[in-house]
Design goal:
With 165 residues, the chain is of the alpha/beta class. The chain has one domain: Rossmann fold, CATH 3.40.50.1240. Helix 1 packs parallel to helix 2. The radius of gyration is 15 Å and the shape is globular.
């Protein structure tokens, strides 16, 4: 059996130059709108997250809240290792304890791209770039370390998920 892990980058946030603290930069109106559209498309595809873990930074928490508000999960938790420069090992330490079969991790680039590379190939090459509100989907083996053993099934920017209206 496998676990499905979705790595989701936060939506478009207020420019760093306009905010005193990186931790409190919110999503912009455009970022909220795009993220809501992405969440709507994910729901239409029949995806539901047993659990969503989010970076404690405001823009990631707002992104995760949009996922919850759109009915993609009922279980949302702050998870400090998803903050910038977090350690994937902290997540993996809880890997076997989690009963979630479909998990979303909401965080930041380059960390999410690097984590995906580590899970797929066992090494970080900094080649995967995840756009804001983009998604990486991985099929990770259960009951063993997923490093170098996970399979990529989705890598998409938000423009491929947003329907033109």
């Amino acid at each position: 059996m496998a676990k499905y892990v979705y790595l989701i980058r936060h939506g478009i946030a207020l420019d760093r130059a306009l905010s005193e603290q990186d931790e409190t930069r919110p999503l912009t109106n455009k970022g909220r709108k795009k993220t809501k559209q992405v969440a709507k498309t994910i729901k239409e595809k029949g995806i539901y997250f047993d659990q969503v873990l989010t970076s404690p930074l405001l823009r990631a928490k707002e992104t995760a809240e949009i996922l919850k508000d759109k009915g993609l999960t009922e279980n949302l938790e702050n998870f400090s290792p998803l903050a910038p420069n977090g350690d994937i090992q902290d997540w993996l330490n809880s890997w076997d304890k989690s009963s979630a079969e479909t998990l979303a991790l909401v965080g930041h680039q380059p960390d999410l791209g690097n984590w995906a590379e580590l899970l797929i190939s066992g090494k970080i090459e900094e080649k995967l770039v995840l756009k804001k509100a983009g998604i990486i989907g991985l099929n990770c083996p259960e009951n063993q370390s997923p490093f170098g053993k996970s399979q990529l099934f989705l890598l998409t920017s938000p423009k491929w998920l947003i329907k033109s209206e």
